[in-house]
């Protein structure tokens, strides 16, 4: 039943359900459930969802309607779902842009299917006046090289800039997948020097060399869940508490926070976990007078020492 409840499976089933029922008025629910490969309970839940689907306006005469006679169901109003879809020029353009963006997204498996659908829509939407060009942010050459290495299954040597430590390093990685999150492209790979799975932003890969050896991520190398963002704080990482002014509140939207408390209308008390206190030191220095370190004391001392060094350089 788990597969029947996935969003993709349910959407496909709902799209097929109306024409199926239209062709079989008065069909028994148990028979329909058997044909569709779901339980009778799941079919009833699908029918309840169909009742709130329909045309914009979503009032009487807009929504799909049906009647029940015991355990038999008949569609009485299909909301036009049996008619071929006619796209306006704006709708066709939006769909073309979305498909081209999907075709550019790293990690997409069946690009041929996307391109076939795109070709059909472009041929049908002759009203589109101007060509549409879509490119994901990042280095196109890098993405092409990474995609090719993934297809060949080879390991890579990367020269990579780490913003957290403000250093560049070389490392050998075993690529696992390419993905796009929040408009940025990433390589997920097993990093041999770290002995763990790491995410590498494609635009921070300064150079790469494909090695003449297969990529061999160990069994414990598991792809991470990026539904909540690429980088999630480690529960064992140290917590940093900052008193933030109005001009520094943007960090609460940019970084995952443990807590945000309004102390006064002008000041918030913000707690967040960091993997590297040196990164936190640079963050605080960059915010300047908009932030005061409350804890830990080690971070406060590091910020003070860096500020004193900077002042001494000007003396």
Give your account of this protein's structure.
The chain is α+β, with helices and mostly antiparallel strands and 315 residues long. It folds into three domains: 75 residues, Arc Repressor Mutant, subunit A, CATH 1.10.10; 75 residues, Roll (SH3 type barrels); 76 residues, no CATH class. Helices cover 35% and strands 27% of the residues. It has nine helices and twelve strands. A five-stranded antiparallel sheet has the order 7-6-5-4-8. A four-stranded antiparallel sheet has the order 10-11-9-12. It starts with 6 loop residues before the first helix and ends with a helix.
- Average pLDDT, rounded to a whole number, is 80
Strand content: 25-35%
Number of domains: 3
Amino-to-carboxy terminus distance: 72 Å
Major sheet characteristics: 5 strands, antiparallel
Uncertain stretches of 5 or more adjacent residues? none
Helix content: 25-40%
The number of distinct β-strands equals 12
Throw out a few tags for this protein.
315 residues; Arc Repressor Mutant, subunit A; SH3 type barrels; 3 domains; five-stranded antiparallel β-sheet; PafC_HTH; CBASS_pafABC_assoc_protein; Protein pafC; WYL_dom
Short description:
With 315 residues, the chain is an alpha+beta fold. The protein contains nine helices and twelve strands. The chain is extended, with a radius of gyration of 27 Å.
Secondary-structure map:
Elements (H helix, E strand, L loop, with lengths): L6 H16 L4 E2 H8 L3 H11 L14 E5 L2 E6 L11 H16 L6 H14 L15 H13 L1 E9 L4 E15 L2 E8 L4 E6 L3 E10 L24 E7 L5 H4 L4 E6 L2 E7 L3 H11 L3 E5 L1 H18 L1
Antiparallel strand pairs: 1-3, 2-3, 4-5, 4-8, 5-6, 6-7, 9-11, 9-12, 10-11
Helix pairs in contact: 2-3, 4-5, 8-9
Protein name: Protein pafC
InterPro entries: CBASS_pafABC_assoc_protein (IPR051534), PafC-like (IPR028349), PafC_HTH (IPR043839), WCX_dom (IPR057727), WYL_dom (IPR026881)
Pfam family, one: WYL
């Amino acid at each position: 039943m788990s597969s029947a409840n996935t969003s993709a499976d349910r959407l496909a089933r709902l799209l097929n359900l109306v024409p199926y029922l239209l062709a079989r008025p008065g069909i028994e629910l148990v028979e329909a459930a058997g044909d569709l490969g779901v339980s009778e309970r799941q079919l009833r839940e699908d029918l309840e969802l169909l009742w709130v689907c329909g045309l914009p306006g979503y009032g009487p005469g807009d929504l799909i309607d049906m009647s029940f006679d015991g355990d038999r169901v008949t569609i009485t109003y299909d909301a036009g779902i049996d008619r071929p879809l006619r796209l306006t020029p704006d709708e066709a353009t939006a769909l073309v842009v979305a498909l081209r963006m999907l075709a550019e997204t790293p990690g997409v498996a069946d690009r041929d299917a996307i391109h076939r659908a795109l070709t059909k829509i472009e041929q049908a939407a002759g009203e589109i006046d101007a060509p549409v060009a879509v490119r994901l942010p990042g280095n196109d050459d890098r993405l092409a090289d990474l995609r090719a290495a993934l297809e060949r299954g080879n390991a890579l040597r990367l020269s990579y800039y780490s913003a957290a430590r403000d250093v560049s390093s070389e490392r050998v990685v075993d690529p696992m997948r390419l993905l796009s999150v929040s408009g940025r492209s990433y390589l997920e790979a097993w990093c041999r020097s770290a002995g763990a799975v790491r995410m590498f932003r494609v635009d921070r890969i300064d150079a790469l060399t494909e090695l003449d050896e297969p990529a061999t991520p160990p069994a414990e190398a598991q792809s991470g869940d990026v539904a909540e963002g690429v980088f999630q704080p480690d529960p064992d990482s140290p917590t940093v508490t900052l008193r933030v002014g109005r001009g520094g509140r943007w960090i609460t939207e940019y970084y995952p926070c443990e807590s945000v408390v309004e102390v006064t209308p002008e000041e918030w008390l913000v707690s967040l976990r960091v993997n590297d206190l040196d990164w936190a030191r640079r963050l605080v220095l960059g915010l300047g007078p908009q932030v005061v370190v409350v804890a830990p004391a080690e971070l406060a001392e590091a910020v003070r020492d860096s500020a004193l060094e900077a002042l001494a350089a000007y003396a």
